Known about the structure:
By secondary structure, this protein is of the alpha+beta class. The chain has one domain. It is built from 1 helix and 4 strands. A hairpin with a 6-residue loop joins strand 1 and strand 2. The longest helix is centred in the middle third of the chain and has 27 residues. The chain is globular and about 40 Å long. The model has no long low-confidence stretch (mean pLDDT 93).
Amino acid sequence: MNMMTVIFLATLFYVQTPEVKENLYSWQIQFSSYEQCEQFFDVYGDKLLNGVVNHGKMVYGQDLGVEYLACAEVKIDPTQQRPQIVGQKVVYEKQ
């Protein structure tokens, strides 16, 4: 069974090799709309960005930066490892 939801999608880059990217999906935090996701980011954005960087460092073992963070509408199919991204609204982008 496929399900639609809104999650955070983060694209990270390696500090030493910025052209190499990794995508992280926030399966633990799901929203029913873009608006709810954006409101959550407005309140907790700084903590969320720090948490993404720390999690990325633990998973990949290197220093990473956040290229962008988006509220992404996705279709979740339990037979697939990654969600199908239907649309997204960027809430943070590296300057």
